[in-house]
Write the structure tokens for this entry.
Amino acid sequence: MTFLTDAERNADIAAFILRLATGAFFLVHGLIKLFVFTPAGTAGYFQSIGLPGALGYLTIALEIGGGLALILGIATRYVSLAMIGVLLGAAVFGHGGNGFTFSNPGGGWEYPVLWAITMLALALLGDGAYSLGRRR
């Protein structure tokens, strides 16, 4: 039987909360791209900002698949690291020209960078409590 300190228990629960929250947000963003903007529309947007359209499809897959993986606690560290790339890409290419503040027209780069930092923290924390990927 393993006994965890209060700090370890708190970190375990913190990772769980971050997994659920960020996973749900990524899932919703991916589903919006899939059902509202459509894959072709998302690819077209990526092309309009100078990126290959294929990255639009990849982003949809990463947001939906990564969101589900985070919610379930599967490969949390790897998924979190992959999402940092998605978020920094959004910060630079999608919002970089709009200034810092996300309340600027078109949204600034502040918010995606904050989420990238959050993903780094989750990558360091790992799966946390109630995870399918947790090693016992």
The helical segments are 6-35, 39-48, 54-72, 76-94, 110-125. Residues 6-125 form one domain. The radius of gyration is 16 Å.
